[in-house]
Amino acid sequence: MTDETRRAGARRVGQVKEVTSLSNPIIKDIKALTSKKDREQNGTFMAEGLKLIIDALELGWTIRTLVYAKAAKGKPLVEQVAAKTFASGGLVLEVSEKVLSSITRRDNPQMVVGIFDQRWASLDALQPEKDATYVALDRVRDPGNLGTIIRTADAAGAAGVLLIGDCTDPFSLETVRATMGSIFAIPLVRTAPDEFLAWRKRAGVEVVATHLEGAVDYRTVDYTKKPIALLMGNEQSGLPDALAKAADRLVRIPQQGRADSLNLAIATAVMLFETRRHLLSLDDIR
Q: Please, which residues have CB within 8 angstroms of residue 206's CB and are 6 or more apart in sequence?
């Protein structure tokens, strides 16, 4: 720990709010973030785990409220995160394990929880480059699928995830957990089908959609000529006709076994890494 961090830690003595009651108003507000309605009203969300929170800070995110268990008190990394929270005007709470469990709905919760402001990008803010790949999801409903897709998009070097229509909330606790921190690294966009299709035209993006009627093997497509948007359908109903017909290419992932379909997150991962294959090398392995 640097001298500056030690001084910051010393300055914050007496500023940490100690909370042991489940009925504390601040704790009630934090627990309310398990509700999509409250997350949307407040524009905030919850993320668990010290490593994830440190990663968020390194990516330029600001913690509104830091909550840590009494057992984490005095740990150097927790002290550093607390100092940064104070420096940015945030609130720091030291809570009992019972309070922390009530916040995260876990019997053995992470020692540290952070509350952050949600971030949404706009379609027009995206500047697709030739090698850019976007994931466009139509009405994805499963939080685990969405979280895994965001994590996979991050791993593959995708430029963003576009949520088309009525999708599950990427800032739900279940989805944030499934992203393993990639929620802080990938631009997220909410859009309607017509807005998405209008954007792809003016941005010069090629839409490649997976579809049961796709006659083209996904491995035979050249993904290098234009920015690509991988269009993936709803878990149960797939892509609606309007989106499928608007795609530049309909492709199919060949299957040999008895299963008639792939899980959405798995199918998206297969497509993503094929799309990005020409950009990924052994040098990218960390």
A: 200, 225, 226, 227, 228, 229, 248, 249
